[in-house]
Every structure is written in C-alpha cells, then in structure tokens.
Design goal:
Three copies of one chain form a homotrimer.
Chain A: H1 2-12, H2 31-49, E1 62-67, H3 73-85, E2 88-91, H4 103-111, E3 116-123, H5 130-146, E4 155-161, H6 166-180, E5 190-195, H7 206-215, E6 221-225, H8 234-247, E7 250-254, H9 257-261, E8 266-270, H10 275-287, H11 292-308, H12 317-320, E9 328-329, H13 349-363, H14 366-378, H15 382-392
Parallel strand pairs in A: 1-2, 1-3, 3-4, 5-6, 5-8, 6-7, 8-9
Pfam families (chains A, B, C): OTCace (PF00185), OTCace_N (PF02729)
Enzyme class (chains A, B, C): transferase
Protein name (chains A, B, C): ornithine carbamoyltransferase
C-alpha cells in the first residue's frame, strides 16, 4: 500500500486535466497527461494485486467497444479495463454500415451513449480515416452532451487508428518504466524500432508510429529503420523529430537493421505496410469499380514480391549480439516466428523463446493502460478518486 | 430529490399490478399500468441524474435480449436499462433455428431462464408472428415457473413485434409529457402520424400502430394519414378508435398529409409497408418454393413503383407551416433525409436540422422506459422499491 | 438456512483441494472432489433461493467462454454461473483461427487472462482434440501465472470435450441425488445409458461417456446399450469398469435396448456417432484434399443408411413398461421426439410429455454445477467462502 500512496502523491503534483475529454493520440497530450495516465495505470495494477475493488462506476454503466477491425488482445484488454472499473461491456458492431460517416456517425454515437461512460474505438484499416472517425464520434457526443441529450459525456478511447496506437505505446512505456526503474530512467536508452519481414505484408503502421512518437518524449535514443519504400506517415516523423529535440533525446532514420540494433537496449522489429502502399490500397478500396479486384491482386503481387527482397530483415540471435548487453526484444504480438508459425518471419526461435515471457509481461500492461485512460477522462480529480478507492478498502474477492 | 419523492407519492396511488407479468402491448395494459410505467421511468431518470445507484438486482442475474431482427438503438437501450438495474446482458441468437416454434420455443425459453429476470424480444419481421412468439415464450416460462423449474418468473418485454412497439411509444409518450408539462397536458394536442416516402419501402408497421393506439388514450387528437393502400393492421385501427372514444380524444384517418399537418402540435412522418403488402410478403416468405425469388423480386418491383408515386409525401419546411406554432417534428430514428442520406426521403434538411436534437431527446427516453418495464414486472411494489433505492442512497459513481 | 449450514458442515469434512487447478474430466477427480463440487452446487442453489447475493468476485473480473462448437444451453448456464459469482462474461471466438494449436494457444490463453478468473471451453468436434486443447490451455495459463505474467491463475472448466461432458454429468448427478434423497442413495439404482435413433447421426459421444464414467462411481448399476458399431471411446469403457469395481457397482455393455431397460430406475436414451465413425470423420476433416467433400458425402450416406437399420431403438411408452416402477426418462436436451420435431426419433410423445418437466429440472442443475466448479477451483477453502457469503447476508434483490 505504500507504493500506491506514493503514486497517488506523485499524481497530485500533475495537472492531468482530461476530464470529459478523449484519449486519442499521445502527441495531442501534454507530458503531464502522459505521465499522469501512466501513474494511474500503475496505481490500478497495484490496487488489484492488493485485492482491492477498483469499481468507480457502481451502476453497471456501459463501456462500449467498437471494433471496425478484428482484435483479440485489445478487445480483451478493453473488456478487462471496463470490468475493473465497474462498466458493463457492450460491443457496437457497425461493420454492416461501411460508409458510416456524417449523419450516421453523429446520430449513432449519441444513440449508444445514453448511459455510456466510454467508447473504445479501433479503426485502423484506411489511411486518413481512422483518426477522423474518432474525432467525428467525439464531436458527436460532445454535441449531445452540450445539448443535454446525454447525461454524461462519454470519453472516446483510441484502441488503434491509422495514425496512433496509444494503448499499445502506453503499455510499452509502462513496460520500459518497470524494466529500467521508472519513467525518468528512460533517458538515453536506445530503442530500435525496425521493420521486419513477414509473409503477411499488410500490417498497420500505427504501432511503429506510436512508438517513435511517444518514446522520443522521454529522451530515448529512437532509431527507426526500414527498407526503402517502407516509410511511415510523414507527420509522425515530424512529431518524433520535434519530441526528440524538446526532450534532449535522439531520433534517427536509417535503412539498416544492423545500424539500428547497434548498442540498442530495446529492439522492436515488426512488419508493416509502407505508407505509400497504404495510400495506394486505400485509394483502390475507396474507388472500387469494375477492375477493382484485378488491381488489388496486382498490388498484392507487387507488395509480396517487394517484401521478399527483404527477407533478411529478421531479428536473429546473431543480430541481437549487436545490441547492448541485457538488451530486450519487444513486440506488440502476435508475431511471426521463423520456423514456428511461418517459414520466414520477424524473429528466430531462440530470440523469441528467450523473450517470450518478457513479451507477455509487456502485453500485460494494456488493461491497466486502458483503465487509466478511462479513469483519467471520466473523473475530475483522478488522484482523489484513487484515494477514495483506497479508503473504501472493499475487497475484490471474498477470500 | 423532491421531484423523485413526488413521483413516488403519485406512484403509490396507482394500481400497477404487473408483478410476474409481461410488458407486451400497450393496449393490454390498464391506464394505471401505462401511467405507472411512465412514472417509474421518470423516477429512474431522476435518480440517475442525482448519481444514485439504481441496481435492484444485486447478483448479476441475467437480462436476455433476443433480437430476431437487426437493431442498434433498441439493443443499446435494453442493455443500458438492464445494466442500470444490475442485470448482466446476454444475447440469445436463435436466428439459425428459423422455425423456432412449438417445442423448440417452449424448451429454449426455459433453458435460458434459470437465472434470468427478463427477456427482451424483438420479432417484427412477419405479420401475424411476432406477438405470437412473445406470447408463446411468456407461456413457456410461466409453465417452467409454475412447475418449480425456474426459481423466478422472467418477464417478457416487447422490444418490437408485428403489432406494437411499446418501448418506442412509451419513449415518445415520455417525450410529449416532458414537452408539454405532464401526461395530463396531452389532452387535445394534435399529433399527425403520417406515412412518408422513403427509398426503403419495407419498414415495419409497428411504430405507427403503437402511436395511434397509445396517444389516443391520452385524449390527443390523433390524425393518421397515408396514401391509399398503405393501411395499418385493422385491429390497431379499432383499438385507436375505441381509445379515442373512451378518453374524449379524437382519431381521424385520411389520405392527405396536409390535412394531417393542419394545426398539428406534433408531426411524426415516417415510411412503412402497407398492411396488405406485408401480408403478401409474409405469405411469399412462408411458402418458399421454386419461383420464390422471382415472385419476391416482382413484389419488390411493384412496391418500389407504387412508392414512387408518393414521393411528395415529405415533411418539408413549407409543409411545417401548416402546423400550429411551436409544432415539433418527431421520428423514431434513423430517418431518411432528402439530400443527406438519400435523394428523396421522409424529411427535408431544414426541418431535420431544426429538430435533430429534439429527436435525440425523444430517443433518450427509451432506456428509462425499458428499465421501468423491467422494474414494474419484476417487483411487487415498484413504489416501495424506488423508496428503498432512495433510502439506500448508494452512489452511482465514486465522485 | 439450516440446509445451507448442514451442507457447509459436510463440505468441511471433505478434502477438495482444487484451488488454482482445473475442472476437466470427472475421472481425474477424487471422490471427495466430485462430492465436494456437488455439495457446493447445492449450497449455491439454496443461497440463491434464499435471496442471498453470491458474488465472490466483487470487481467484475472476467469469466471467458470459448465455444468452439455451437451451444445455447451450456452457453447460458456458464453465463448464469459466472454472473452468480460476480464475473463478467466475455466470449472468446477463435473459430477463425482453426488450427489454433501450439504457440497460438499458448499465447492466446495468456492474452485473454490478465484479469480473468475462469475460462470455460467447449471443444468437442474432433476425436483426440478437445481434451488436448483444454490441457494445452491450462498449461499455458499455468506458465503465465508461474512467470508472474498473470496476477491470478484462471481455472479451465470443461464445457464439453471429445471425452467428457462433466457439467452435464454433474448436473445429472445432482438431479439423481435430488430424486432419490442424496448421493448416498444412488447405490444399486439401475441406469440404462442407451443409444437411440435420431435423423441427426453425428451427435457427440461425450454425454454417454460422461454418464458411464461418473455414475459407476456411486455404486450404480450402469447398463450401456447400443447397436453394434456404435462403440464409445475405449478408454472410457475401461474407466467405467474400474469405477464399478471400486464402488461395488455394476457396469454392463449389451446390444439390446430392452435388456438395458429391464428394471431400470433411470433410462437415458440418446443418439451418438459411433467411435470408429468419429475417428474416420476426424481423419477425413484433418486430411482435407481434393476429393474431401466427395468422401465426406460418402461417409454421411453410409452413416445415414446404417442408422436407419436401428430405427427401432426408440424410447416408447411400451418399452418404459420394462423398467422398474417410478422409472424416469432423462435426456441432456434438446432431444428428437417422434412426431414432434422429427418423423422418427429418440423418444415417443407420451414418454416425452410425461417427463418433460422432469428433464427441464434435470437441466436446471447445470448453472449451479458450473458455478460450483468455478468456486471450487478459484477459492482455497470453499466451505469458508460459503460461510462468508452466509455471514455477509447481502440480498440478491432489493425486495
């Protein structure tokens, strides 16, 4: 309990100021909002371990999850986070109304929100759309709240968009803070955010974008490496540069996996679809038309052929020797492991096996990160709310 | 809290008598049952606003929702209502067993009810079936309860059938009561329940039927207007006539939208499939056979062509001028707005925009209406139960 | 409440020892574990009837249900059990990743378990797979728990595998105990577990296997009867023999329904696919290939033709006369009733109607059986936990 009290004390020093707002992109957040959210996550995890009931919603209000793309990990993390805080989870499946924009979004968002405290949204399929959709939803519930239609203003939590994947990045940040002894211990640590080969060529760009944008804020030495043509969204590169400058960190982009791994404390090798290809695919999908499938097949063929040229972008035991001693392999999971679930993949078996449990621990931060985002956006004074949880001292299990 | 206490006081005067019964059609209810349910809804909403925990089921018993037709609004309203009262929502998807009648229904209803307090059912696809299915389910759980198989008798709540849509009508009733200052202020108000053109020709008849049947009870001047051939279920016309007579209200049927709008306080223009067509379609679907699709296509073509002749049945800014001053446009949502989500629709943009928030407020009553139906059917003395909620004074949020 | 206290007293005498373990197959359990689980089920049912809140998880932790085959009855029983104990149910649908073995299972099991207390799994489609999958999942969460990834060790509850259907068998055991006045009153009672004809030829073997394995432990006279070729999994026959020897019961296998019915106290006639056919079908499905569908059609044709030869394996009013007086018909439901939902089925209408409510009562034990399995595996001292529920004396409903 000492640990919890010390976290709450630290929280009181921070101006979190997220009440009735949303948790969309880390780069829209102040440093205090980021750190505050991280600390709330740590406090909730500690309370759970102490068998303390953390329900702050005591009426089974709804936590709505809207997955516009498949998900297991994030789905269960959101459900766990919602349950932890006392929300009942309801899935909102709007996949049938593909072109859900404009009036449909505005109205739909309000119709599901009469007793809703939070809407978690994953919408990462199309470049230029996911973030926009979340903003549109947030504006819709704001309008409903301002007009008195909604008795509370549900917060929108970004469970992955085309630009950012903040629940993943925050979960990784928590993992690094635990590994190295605190958020203030990350300064100077080198992280290699690198592309890696995978037979599945179309993975989202939001993970690498979220990592370079967030880790640069903590003074880390962030090295982004990918083959030519596998660029990220240009805006996120600008964000990373600016953050590195402000924090006294470093941000490098190269086309060499080895250079990135050199003396790295953390390597994060994963596959993604290059930005230009993502744009091309999005345009194809949007345009449709007669020869649509033909063109999509042609693009896929081109992508797979291009991909194959970079089969050597693999995280191997050998390559890990380039890193600093005690370097760790990280991944958002699930990953493609050579010889385990594919012929050639992002990582070899020895590396994967060595860090398998580490990567599970990494993932284990996600429920707390999401719960923290909900609590931060739904309560005026999160430190005071946590104090009330401690004071109430209700038990989580009837042991 | 004064407001709540005054509602509870009024409730005590009413003989609600719905314990261990169902909430199926408004016209099976006494006036006191209707008013009682409305007042419970208002009390629950007021308690929620006061941050009071309204859970009356304190063991996570189940609230089962059985949607035999798609739904977003009603689905979330039911989930919200169930959560508000402390029930855990479970969806029962029996769509695979299309011909779920007889033994299947009798057994299935009991098998999902061992710890269930309420089953909400939407079954509005086929004329002559939806209500029957709900009655069958109610009889099945009654048998299980009487035989001691079920430890409690789950109540069936009609979330829309082929005849009535009571959660919508009650939600509208609450909206009118709020607009005009009370249920007793509705007498003499004119409501135009009119057909309107929509490119989607097959919308259910239950909404207009539920409106004419319920609003006539409150002494309203109900004007039903539709093109020739777009009749409602004859029995509901009889119900509306009888109610108007009994309440001193008025019930008129015409084939003129303008006549209906003349001096109206409320207009409710929406598309529906004419009763005869609904019967024809149901018979086609039931019969199946070789040339089934051909016949269905032929019917659809005929319906669309017929529909097009009435493209002028639109609620326009111009037409609204026929109404009384301060007249309001209502809709069960989602609606088809000309130039917004279709080329020609039920309403024009200026009218839609003017009353958009009003229509959201209208919809916002649905969770409270459903929660009231559950509470009224599951507790012997709803006024006493509400009093206990007030006395307990548990907080909904840990603020 | 006296009844509850007496059950708790009996429970204290038993060494249940299931904490942080799984509930997979009855034959892996000691007699005390079986009896202990049964008594917990009876205690929970009694508490529910007394309007006592039974939530032992007070933080909305997750109860995950993973149905790799369709289910209504067991799905709702699991949901009810989870809700009763305070868990929020989340479905884990992994049907898309058909070949979910190896790494996928190991990782997936941990990823859904960060705040999960229990995972209920149905996986009964393929001989030799279902139980293995459950063991694999259990080992995965054990590894995660040992490594500190999971803060609690979710228990796996078998909701039907290829070998056993313990929630059904335990539910039947409870039914028999209630019918005859206690678990100690089953000795010598004859149960006829017989095959019966059904137009659906492919029903799982787990129910008959679970019945012969469990009921032989209680000294019952278990008579298994089926046409030639409709064998059960050989291992389960061995288990039944051994149990009968140990308990002083009896285990007979014959090919005569009449012989089985002779003087039986309980008859349990139901259809299943013979073991050899199940193996053949599994191999076909696993192998796939070009002529796969052709071969499957051929097998199906052969099975249906073979089945038809045994159309006289029906539980009829006439045949029931062979039984002891007061004999009862049991079934796991849903069943195929001649002239009701099929032309020729497992049972005739008079027998079905006579015992319909009895079979519903039989099924009604399932939620309590599942809840008991969860409580037994998640709490160190279930008797003490039940005592705390009694002492807390919180009400289930605000009556």
């Amino acid at each position: 309990m000492e640990k919890i009290e010390s976290i709450i004390k630290e929280l009181k020093e921070l101006n979190i100021d997220l009440y009735n707002k949303d948790w969309l992109r880390t780069w829209d957040m102040t440093q205090e909002q980021i750190e505050g959210t991280a600390k709330i996550a740590l406090a909730l995890e500690a309370l759970y371990k102490e068998n303390i009931d953390c329900r702050v919603f005591q009426n089974g209000s709804l936590g709505v999850s809207q997955f516009r793309d498949n998900s297991t990990r994030t789905r269960f993390s959101f459900a766990s986070a919602a349950a932890l805080l006392g929300l009942q989870v309801q899935d909102f499946d709007d996949t049938k109304s593909q072109a859900a924009h404009g009036e449909t979004v505005r109205e739909g968002a309000n119709m599901i929100s009469f007793l809703t405290e939070c809407i978690g949204i994953r919408d990462d399929k199309f470049v230029g759309e996911g973030h926009e959709f979340q903003v549109e939803t947030a504006e819709a519930v704001q309008e409903g709240f301002d007009a008195g239609v909604l008795h509370q203003r549900p917060s929108i939590v970004n469970l992955q968009c085309d630009q950012d994947h903040p629940t993943q990045a925050m979960c990784d940040l928590l993992h690094f803070a635990k590994t190295y002894g605190g958020l203030d211990k990350l300064k100077g640590k080198k992280i290699a955010m690198t592309w890696a080969y995978s037979p599945a060529y179309g993975k989202p760009l939001s993970v690498p974008q979220s990592i370079i944008a967030l880790m640069t804020r903590f003074g880390m030495d962030v090295h982004l490496a990918h083959p030519e043509g596998y660029d990220l969204l240009p805006e996120t590169i600008e964000v990373a540069k600016k953050h590195a400058e402000e924090s006294g960190g470093k941000f490098t982009v190269s086309h060499s996996m080895d250079e990135a791994f050199k003396d790295a404390d953390i390597v994060y090798p994963k596959s993604w679809l290059g930005y230009n290809f993502a744009v091309e695919r999005t345009e194809l999908l949007r345009k449709g038309g007669k020869d649509f499938q033909e063109k999509l097949d042609e693009l896929e063929k081109r992508l797979l052929e291009g991909n194959k040229k970079h089969i050597d972008w693999e995280c191997t035991e050998e390559r890990m020797k380039l890193c600093a001693p005690d370097a760790q392999w990280c991944h958002c999971l699930p990953c493609d492991t050579t010889g385990l679930n594919c012929e050639h993949g992002e990582v070899d078996i020895p590396t994967f096996e060595k860090f398998r449990v580490n990567s599970w621990n990494e993932a284990g931060n996600k429920p707390w990160a999401i719960a923290a985002m909900i609590l931060a956006t739904r309560f005026k004074d999160p430190a005071a709310t946590l104090e009330k949880i401690v004071e109430r001292d209700a038990k989580r299990r009837l042991d």
